[in-house]
Amino acid sequence: MIAITDHAHRIRTGAVSAVHTVQQTLEAFRQRDAAYHTATRLLDERALKAAADVDARIARGEPVGPLAGVPFGVKDLFDLAGLVTTAGSVVLKDQPPAAQDAEVVRRLCAAGAIPVATLNMDEFAYGFATENAHYGTTKNPHDTACLAGGSSGGSAAAVAAGLLPLTLGSDTNGSIRVPASLCGVWGLRPTQGVLPLDGVYPFAASLDVVGPFTRTSADLACAFEALSGENSAIVQDVSGLKIGRLDGWFAQDLDPDLVAGVSRLLAACADVRSVTLPDVARARAASFVITAAEGGALHSGRLRTQPMAYDPATRDRLIAGALLPSLPVIQAQRLRAWFRDVLHETFRDVDILVAPATPGVAPRLDQPTITLGGRQVSARANLGLFTQPLSLAGMPVVAAPLAPAPGKPVGLPLGVQLIAAPGREATLLAFAQTMEKAGLLGFPSASADVSKQA
C-alpha cells in the first residue's frame, strides 16, 4: 500500500507519469468496479487533461503541489465544473451544469490532485446504505453480499477496493463514519465549519460537514492538510492524553469482536476513564427531527411538482419532514444546544472520546433487520445508532477501522469513532497515527493496491 505522499513523490520525480497513473486508475474502474458499483461517472477527458498538465509542469521544473497526480473521486453531490450535480437523483438532471468546482474540490486540485470519478450515494444523502433506486447499490468490497454503508458508500468502497487512494464524502448524521466503519477505511468528519460547503448540494445545512476517506491515518492527515490549509500532519506525543470510553448508550448490543478490539485499543492508553453522556436517545431523536425538517423544507417545492421523480423511500421521508410542525423542531434545536454544551463540558476532563461507529459488521444486502435491545429493528435505519447523536455537537470525529484480532482469521471490518473538542483535528490524527503504528487500528484493503500497477 503506497502512501499518498509517496504516490505524489513518484510522479514529481518522474518514476511514473501522471498520465499513466490516471490511465491505470480509469482502466481499473472499467475492469473491476462492476463488482462494487462505486462510480456513477468517469471523468476521462478532464482527468487525462489535468494529468498531462501535471506532467508538463514537472518537465518545465514548475511546482505541482503536495498531491501531484494523486487521483481522487467525489461523492456525487460535489460540484464539478461543466457537469450537472445529481446528488444521487434524477430530480436534478435538467439543472444547468456547475459553473465551477466545489471549493474543497478546487483545493485538492490546487494541491495537484486529479478528480477521476463521481461516486455513488443515497439519493440526496438521505440514508445509511447507498441503495440508490436510480444508480444502483454499492457493495462492500470485503464481501459483495454486504452493504457498503451510506450515504457516502461509493466514496468509502472505492478506497476499500483499492480503486482510489483518496475520496470526498459528506456527513450529516454519520454518512462518512458509517461507511468508513463498514468498509474498513479511514474517514474524517471535521469540526463543523472548518471546511467550506460552497458547491456541495445540501441535505440538512445546519448539520452538514464534508471530509475525506483514505486507506491510512497518515493519508487522512495529509488530505485534511490540503483541504484545510492547517498543518495536521505533525506527529505529537499522545502518551499523556486522557481517553474517555463512552459507555451506556454506546455500549449496547455490540459485536463481541468490536468490544474486544476497543479493549485492546484502550489497553495501550495510559489514562482511560468511562464516560456516560446523559439523554443520548433524546439527542438521537433530535438529530432525526432536525434532519427531517431541514431536508423536507429544502425539497418541499419540487415535491409538489415532481414527486414521482424521487426514490419512493426518500420521497416519503422528505414529505414527512416537510409536514413536521414547528414545536418539535424548536424543541430539537434546544436539545441540540444543551447536548453540545454537555459534550463541551466533557472535554474539560478528557482529550479524546472513543465510541463504536456501528454496532457490528456490515449487514448483508438481503438482511432487513438487526437485533437491538432484544428486538428486531431495521438494519438500515439503525446503522447510525452511534453516529447520529454525536453529530449535534459539531465536533471533529475520526472514523477509524480496528485492526483484525491477532491470531484470528480476518473477517469483515469493525470501526470506532475518535472524538475531540472543536478544532482538535491535529490531536485526533496524531493519536490515530500512533495507534495505527502500534497495530491497533487499520484494516487491509479488500484487493491489491491499484497504484502499485503504475
Automatic annotation (TrEMBL):
Residues 23-429 form the Amidase domain. SUPFAM superfamilies: Amidase signature (AS) enzymes. GO terms for molecular function: catalytic activity. Coiled coil: none annotated. PANTHER family: GLUTAMYL-TRNA(GLN) AMIDOTRANSFERASE, TRANSAMIDASE. This is Amidase. It comes from Acetobacter persici.
